[in-house]
Amino acid sequence: MKKIVVTGGLGFIGSHTVVELQNSGFKVVIIDNLSNTTMSVLDGIVSITGKTPDFYNIDLKDKQDVEAFFKTHSDIAGVIHFAASKAVGESVNEPLMYYENNINTLVYMLQNTSQLKQAPFIFSSSCTVYGEAQELPISETSPIQPALSPYGNTKQIGEEIISDLCKADASFNAIALRYFNPIGAHESAKIGELPLGVPQNLVPFITQTGAGIREQLSVFGDTYNTEDGTCIRDYIHVVDLAKAHVIALKRLMDGENSRNYEVFNLGTGQGSSVLEVIKSFERVSNQPLNYKVVDKREGDVVAAYADTTKAKEVLKWTAKSTLDDAMLSAWKWQQRLKKD
To answer: Which regions span the lipid bilayer (predicted)?
Structure first.
């Protein structure tokens, strides 16, 4: 059974990927410092899969702790690196925290992974690398624009670091997966998005407002150059996204990659506005949502949705779930959280 390390494995996307990895027969080792999640997520993973992944509470900013971990795990067959801070607004206010947490930790993981024999590396990247896209839909060959936030910049820099390593070391294989907007939860409602404090992402704020935890949802601007004036994003179900990680990992393990560094967009190819997401929630929950339009937010891109051709043709992967599917699963997860 091949051992895969998943950093940030108790986070939103990480936990769903751990489930898919375990269901695909991999032995999973999770590294997480619990800075933006709780140990209850591990219980959810075990409950869904019937398997308990190994867990290490390690802060990847501590270089010595990272080195010590790899010394005792020389049989690692692959690494999926999620661990990073990811709130656009927070990164604008705390840039140095984002550069330390997102860049230093990546470097330490790469330094150690590259010493292993044939252990491929999957990097959790983002469509933010495209900045304010000049063309829609966004393909992998779309130009990388200047980052609109320190968070986006850390993803650009992270990809450059991995690309440089792959150029220097022909035996090192990596894939960067550029996500669009992951939402939803596992169909069991045993794991889902678990923001600590005030949610930074749209959907958990919607579901918390629907559940009465938040008084009102703020819609940041309705004067953008879109059909209803609100920002457009490509919302992808987190389980579809998680499955793509397993496919990408197997691609590298089986030596099917055409070059030792590849990038793929992961989205649905469909753009949805903030108001369309709100309407989807109202449909699946059968209740109105209390929301109010407020000022625009610094760092927000007007519209972004994926050209998914490359992922379909090369990875043979495509997103299966609809926006309503994802919103319903997110709402069921929120209701479970409220009940618990």
So the answer is: none
Please state the rounded mean pLDDT for residues 297-316: 92
pTM (2 d.p.):
0.97
Q: Tens digit of pLDDT for each residue in 32-53?
A: 999 999 999 999 999 999 999 9
Q: Which of 130, 151, 235, 305 is catalytic?
A: 151
Q: How many CA atoms does the CB half-sphere of 317 hold within 13 Å?
A: 27
Q: Which residues lie below 8 Å from residue 225, measured CB to CB, with a gap of 6+?
A: 302
Respond yes or no: is residue 151 known to be catalytic. Answer: yes
The yes-or-no verdict on residue 54 having pLDDT over 90 is yes
Domain enclosing residue 13, as ranges: 3-183+237-266
Three-state DSSP class for residue 292: strand
- Helix, strand counts (H, E) of the chain: 12, 13
**pLDDT (tens digit per residue) in 190-239:** 999 988 888 888 999 999 999 999 999 999 999 999 999 999 999 999 99
Look at residues 242, 301, 291 and name the one whose alpha carbon lies nearest to residue 88.
301
Q: Are residues 251 and 104 in the same domain?
A: yes
| Per-position DSSP letters for 212-268, written without gaps between them | TSSS-EEEE-S-SSSSSSS-EE-EEEHHHHHHHHHHHHHHHHTT--SSSEEEEEES-
Closest of 257, 258, 245, 253 to residue 317, by C-alpha? 245
Q: How many residues does the chain have?
A: 340
**DSSP label at residue 147:** P
pLDDT of residue 315: 98
Round to whole Å and give the CA distance between 88 and 298: 9
User: In this structure, is residue 196 part of a structural domain?
Assistant: no
**Contact assessment for residue 110 and residue 121, using Cβ atoms and an 8 Å cutoff:** yes
